[in-house]
Amino acid sequence: MNMLEMVLVLFAVVLFTTVALNYNRLVWEQADYLINANKYLQCSHLSHSILDEVDAFLFSKQLKFNDIKKKYNTERNVTLQHAGGTYSISIHADDCDSLGVLLPEPKPNNLYALVTVETKTFGLRHPVTQQRVYTKTDLNIK
Amino acid sequence: MSVILDVMAAVVLGSILLLMMITFQYNLREATDRALYTKQMLDHMDLAAYKLNGVVALAGIGFEPNEMVVHARPDSLVFNTYWDYQNNILGTHSNTLSISLSPMPSPYGKALVIRQNGVPLNDLGHIFWVDRLRFVYHDRDGRVTTDRTKVRDTNIYLTFFRDPPRAGGQTLRNNLEIKCFFMNAFMRGA
Fold first, then answer.
1. Triad B186, B188, B190: Cα angle to 5°
2. What is the DSSP letter of B149?
3. pLDDT, tens only, A106-123
4. In this complex, do B38 and A56 lie within 8 Å of one another by their Cβ atoms?
5. Which among A118, B3, B102, B129 is placed 20 to 30 Å from A128, CA to CA?
6. Which sequence spans correspond to the domains of chain B?
């Protein structure tokens, strides 16, 4: 084997190794994206269920409007046996205006509260965040 | 002799490289197909969850909380409401809604069927590609219950499936867990 043949063989090895590495990287990335999409779906439903829970308890008067900030500034860790994985949920409640913009300072007898739910889990690229504005009405004062 | 050996070596090496490229292409196609199927599946799962949550949220309109649910079984849920899901309006008479898995003709296997007074809904009355469905019910304080008069929310465990893109491949399965509140029961004090 002369020098030219050796160089050609070297080029071939480099070319096919590059192709194989790129192919494997793309397949792994694709698998990551699919796992991310699946986790995103589950996290969005988890976040949604927390926001629905606040609504439900306000409706039934199990939760007073003024207690939202007290009871929904918390962290929860949930393990889902069926869907798989452990999910950490951060819940924050603050005073806001009617458009959901946070107030710089707490206002006495404010009519609106913004609840933000952020859910994270292994395999999810970015946390899922959902928000809902709750309004004080005669249904949930007492 | 040396030329013959060189040619044979070139043919063998060339064939191996060609086989490698063909295998790459097949694997790439399989991976792409699976990604496409899974993407469609995730869209379908989201739509199904949205639909189920909407159906349960409008349960029990016009009924006392303890009269809302007719059957609360692990594999099916039956409830009363004055909401007319078929026409998407508040009806003048009560309707009985049921959510359960039913066998479907091949290749669907089973489908989650939402029936109003025994008739499947026109809009997403059949949710295909579901092969497992389980309900776990909770009372107003979040405790697990099997008493239909105490049911105020339910966890729905769904398993979606799709056939593999290529024959002989592994079936694609995705699990989803959702929580649906019977909002009208809560509005009546739960």
1. 45
2. G
3. 888 889 999 999 999 998
4. no
5. B129
6. 35-187
d(CA B49, CA B175): 12
- Per-residue pLDDT tens digits for A41-57: 999 999 999 999 999 99
Residue B181 is encoded by which pair of tokens?
Answer: 């509140």
Count the Cβ atoms, other than its own, within 10 Å of residue B69. 24
In tens, the pLDDT along A121-137 reads 998 999 999 999 999 98
B128 contacts: CB under 8 Å, gap ≥ 6: B44, B104, B108, B111
Contact B173, B159 (CB under 8 A): yes
Nearest C-alpha neighbor of A54 from the set A44, A76, A69: A69
Using only C-alpha atoms, chain A has a radius of gyration, in whole angstroms, of 25
How many CB pairs below 8 A link A and B?
A: 78
- Domain range summary for chain A, segments of one domain joined by +: 3-135
Q: What is the pTM of this model?
A: 0.85
From CA A7, how far away is CA A13, in angstroms rounded? 10
Query: What is the per-residue burial (b if ≥16 Cβ within 10 Å, else e) of B51-67?
Result: bbbebbbbbbbbbebee
The ipTM of this complex is 0.83
**Nearest chain B Cα distance for residue A125, angstroms:** 17
C-alpha separations of B93 from A52, B58, B96, B117 in Å: 28, 15, 10, 11
